[in-house]
Amino acid sequence: MDPKIYLKNLNIEFKVHTHKAVFTGPEAAIHCNHINGLHSKNLFLKNKNKKKFYLVIIPAKDNLDLTKLNSILNDKLGLASADRLKNILNLSPGSVSPFGLINDKDKKTILLIHKDVWISEVVTFHPNINTETLELTQDAFRKYIASLDIEYKIID
């Protein structure tokens, strides 16, 4: 489902920003730096033993400390394959965003949100395409997350 339609159906307000296609964080920094809000990185990971899947959202300026995350979760995580990303979130590498969770009908994915993203007054994510960015207030983002009815954790 188109994330913009999903949000509209729930009366969740957002702003749409269009821009050149971006494929990497550095490209996004160039073409999206005028957009208000905290920008993020979104990574789709899998548990190597138990077949759990995680969508991790961290601030764009940060790097994911996988060793620390493994310690927090008491588990061992790695990047999920492109096939699993397609099968579970209906996304391709480079297009991962929390809006892909709309497509996880079996709710296989646990969402891990960095505390700086969770407390930010405004956050931005692309709506599963790389030529647009959606800007949401903290309340709108939290309403979206609640609408998914999935497990999520706030991480440091």
| Distance from first to last alpha carbon | 31 Å
CATH class: Alpha Beta
Low-confidence stretches: none
Whole-number tally of structural domains: 1
Task: Give the overall pLDDT as a whole number.
Answer: 93
Query: What is the percent of helical residues?
Result: 25-40%
Arrangement of strands in the largest sheet: 4-2-3-5-8
Beta-strand fraction estimate: 25-35%
The largest β sheet comes out as: 5 strands, mixed
Protein architecture, described:
The longest helix has 11 residues. Helices cover 29% and strands 27% of the residues. It is α/β, with parallel strands linked by helices. The chain has a single domain, classed as YbaK protein. A hairpin with a 6-residue loop joins β6 and β7. The protein has a 5-stranded mixed β-sheet with strand order 4-2-3-5-8. Strands 1-7-6 form a 3-stranded antiparallel β-sheet. The chain contains 6 helices and 8 strands, in the order αβαββαβαβαββαβ. The chain is globular. It starts with a helix and ends with a strand.
Structure summary:
With 156 residues, this protein is of the alpha/beta class.
Outline the fold blueprint:
Elements: H1 3-9, E1 15-18, H2 25-31, E2 40-47, E3 53-59, H3 66-73, E4 77-79, H4 82-89, E5 109-114, H5 115-119, E6 122-125, E7 132-137, H6 138-148, E8 152-155
Parallel strand pairs: 3-5, 5-8
Antiparallel strand pairs: 1-7, 2-3, 2-4, 6-7
Structure characteristics:
27% strand; single chain; YbaK protein; three-stranded antiparallel β-sheet; 6 helices; five-stranded mixed β-sheet; alpha/beta; 8 strands; 156 residues
